[in-house]
């Protein structure tokens, strides 16, 4: 992964964690023909396990945030009750109890997800959701700038 891109993502995620006082932030990108979601960078992680996790196409965050292109809250208890916890491996790997996921977009397509999460039950207030959305927009803009620079060189 590009070191400059990773450093920028980490800076945005650290800022976000401070701003909304959350335990964890992670950037995942949709890759390959299968459109699997692979977690690329994290802040507040308990280890490096996140980097080996990918969400299968049509499942978990790939089947919701990526497919629909809208932000969504993720609650551990709801996942257990609906028997879909296995579709959200990042939640169990990082022991998250609550999360809020926002799509990273490039034009009209979703290229990834910014996930903010906590290791305790939490409901994200509208102003916190807005902060996560703004952080996702910053990451998306930077990604688009890098893509256009790469295309022009």
UniProtKB/TrEMBL annotation:
Pfam family, one: GAF_2
Alphabetical list of InterPro entries matching this protein: GAF, GAF-like_dom_sf
Lineage, highest ranks first: Bacteria, Bacillati, Bacillota, Bacilli, Bacillales
Transmembrane segments: none
Residue ranges of every copy of the GAF domain listed in the record: 12-139
Protein name: GAF domain-containing protein
UniProt superkingdom: Bacteria
């Amino acid at each position: 992964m590009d070191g400059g891109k990773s450093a920028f993502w980490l800076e945005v995620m650290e800022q976000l964690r401070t701003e909304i006082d959350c335990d964890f932030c992670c950037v995942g990108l949709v890759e390959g023909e299968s459109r699997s979601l692979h977690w690329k960078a994290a802040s507040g992680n308990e280890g490096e396990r996140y980097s080996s996790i990918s969400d299968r196409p049509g499942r978990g965050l790939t089947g919701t945030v990526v497919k629909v292109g809208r932000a969504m809250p993720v609650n551990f208890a709801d996942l257990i009750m609906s028997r879909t916890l296995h579709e959200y491996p990042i939640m169990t790997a990082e022991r998250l109890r609550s999360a809020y996921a926002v799509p990273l977009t490039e034009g009209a397509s979703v290229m990834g997800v910014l996930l903010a999460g906590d290791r305790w039950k939490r409901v994200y207030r509208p102003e916190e959701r807005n902060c996560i959305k703004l952080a996702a927009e910053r990451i998306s803009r930077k990604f688009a700038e890098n893509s256009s620079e790469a295309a022009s060189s």
